[in-house]
Fold this protein.
Amino acid sequence: MGTVYDKLVDQAEAMVNIINKKYVAGNRMAYLALLSGVGSCRIESYPGAGHNYQAVVDAIHNCYARDNTSGIDTGYRDGLYAMIKVAGSFSALQTLMNILFYQLKKEKEGKAQFKIDIQEVMSKVNLLISENRVSYEKEYISFDSWLERNSKFAYENYGIKLGKEAFG
């Protein structure tokens, strides 16, 4: 009998398998719903708890460990890129950054089954922030301090530059 989190990861693994079948069948946006926690792809410990992106990322890595030829890593990457394309709202950006930081944490701790090309991903994220900065600031009054904190965290923990830090 596992913990509540273990059960959540099990639930997420079942969803990863469903989503990956859709991805392999040609739905290149399948992982977007899972990563974002949209509709039936929301993974939460109880109704209203909110989407648990960590359980989803852990499930993706667990499923990949069992079958590294099924395209799960590629689907995950494409899902991240899809999130970048549609992250026009601050909440979507925040979810994206939470997923990326958790992925990087797993990589740093040696717990990731695969790595993402963080330089490529961050160049797209930085462009996203640059293009949407005004709307993020309108939506979230403390956006500048949020970005400053996240930039500091990204650089200190992973050596990556985020936001205005990336543009010099």
In short: The radius of gyration is 16 Å. Residues 118-139 form the longest helix (22 residues). The chain has a mean pLDDT of 94. The chain is about 70% helix and 0% strand.
